[in-house]
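Structure ticket #2291
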Amino acid sequence: RSVSAAFQEHLRRLGLRDFPCGLGSWNKSCFHAHTSPRGARLGLRADPAGQEEAVPLDKESPEVLMELLSDQHSPWALPPGCSPQDQHLREMAVLAPELTHGSNIFQVLRSLRIIGKGVEEVDKGLLQLQQLEELILSTNQISRISSANLPRTLKVLELCCNAVSDLQDLCAQPPPELQHLGLGYNRLCGPSQDKYLTADFWPNLVSLDLSFNNFTDLLELVSQLSSLQKLRVLVLQGNPLALISTYRGFLVDSLPKLSILDDIHIGPDERHQFHGLSRQPELIRSEARVVVSVGEIKGVPEPSAHQQLEAGSKAPVITYSYCVTYEF
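Resolution: structure written out below.
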């Protein structure tokens, strides 16, 4: 399933052409859409003599139609959980319906959120969104994404909770103005992917989320990230390298322009505390110690609870053994 298909289905659910939205006979804004190339924003249009133009009485005013959209008790109100972008599109379909008619919507949309819709492909249909600045595709099934299908105007790209394992296609011609790249909860691992996290591909990156992937080489990753001169926010928690005891201190000292690491602000005291740690790479060991304490196990038969065999009995003896396995 492609992003374009999910987007078109989402537009149909929003009902941008149905009452109280759209260029229907009920909308006074529709009356002005035929006389003005951009359409009126609110109310009736005045003629040069100061007189209001006459419109059919069966047309509702934009104020009334907007109230039907915003009133939570209205049958046309958006259900809870819809994005602000959804509400904005429906309001636009009342105030300036010609902007949401046909292909015009591709020229005005700046943010697109397709979350949890089973999307597998980021197709070239996105290139129609020539003003798109924010693309949120979290919780889908995307494994590869080609930069050739991304609008060049993008500033935010969020791919959290997908199946991305390779950044090569994404970095072929990445959006040059991208400021946030969200790749948390994917299948990325180093060192094969570290080389794509440099200023050669992301010169304007301010925020980077790589949490809960499989990066293991802290030294190699930091050497690549250090080229991102505008990087201020970095999330690496959930990766194996975050288990290294000197992990946070080494990053804080290695990336002096960083302001937030793993959602925790980096203050002057912490900078002073870890000063010079980046010049001691020998302190970074590719090993970690994990202590697990098992407090109670339920649902396992207790051997002592079985009936004891009588002395001299020739019945077979049954023994039980148990093991606990941990996967890292």
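Closing remark: Strands lie at 111-113, 134-136, 156-158, 180-182, 207-209, 233-235, 260-261, 264-265.
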